[in-house]
Amino acid sequence: MKNKIILMLLTVVLIFAISLVFWSQQNIKNNNKQADQETARTVVENFGHKLKNVSLLSSTAAQDIETNYKDFIAPELLVKWKADPTKALGKLTSNPWPDSIEVESIKQFGSGAYDVNGEIVNKTSAGVVGSTPVEIGVAKFGNSWLITGISIPSNQENKLWKEYKNSEGVSFQYPEKFLTQYVFTQEWPPIVDVKSDAYSCKETPQEISSATEITSQRFVENRTYCVKVKNEGAAGSVYSSYTYTISKNGKLVKVSFVLRYPSCGIYDKEQNRACVAEREAFDLDGIVDRIVQTIK
Length: 296
Prior knowledge:
Elements lengths: L1 H47 L12 H9 L5 H9 L13 E14 L2 E12 L2 E15 L2 E8 L2 H7 E5 L5 E5 L8 E12 L17 E8 L2 E12 L2 E12 L2 E12 L6 H13 L2 H10 L3
Antiparallel strand pairs: 1-2, 2-3, 3-4, 5-6, 7-11, 8-9, 9-10, 10-11
Helix pairs in contact: 2-3
């Protein structure tokens, strides 16, 4: 009888010891998983703060990608983005710009690998103007955690930029709408004309620069545009007709469209300030330059 009691006690102690070891191992595993998830979150968030430093249409895009992203993305992805910056994340126009990434969820999909879902927050000088969903893969390489892949859901990309093809077979991408509150498209998408003419630009003399129709040369990412702007006022708004002309691949490209600018004076004091700030920050040249780079 005594031996049976001792055996029972030993069995209980053994079960307790096994349970304690299992619980301890499970607790360590859970703590490690939580720590890994926080590390993955930190990598994505820190990477997000670098996006505004990389202009994807700049002549220095590859070097900027190396400088800003090398500590956050895997070597294979870094090489891919440097070879073709248009496949990378970064700034396409000076306004709005990608300011950060807000992480919404983290899911483990393998040993030492996580799928991070979040939103790229877009800003202007007037504040946040929207966000873009993004899916990011993060994996452990030795003692480092690096981003292995990034994708934006295709349905979201389609909402941002549309593909257009005119009757002459010229195709290009354009934003369906601007992320602005005080600038509106009037005649849009733009009309794109490609011809074999030579580039020329007769600028409006400075002494008549107050004229309603002005032609000037502008430099956007080391590219030269001849820009003609004609302004007409009606019903509290200014309607501006634009024609951007540039020499591209031996052809003369013209991009024409009309925008509407309501007078900032029709708004209350707070909205007036926001309107003025948005107009000052609005990077129309950058938007047109991106459209031109997609022309085929």
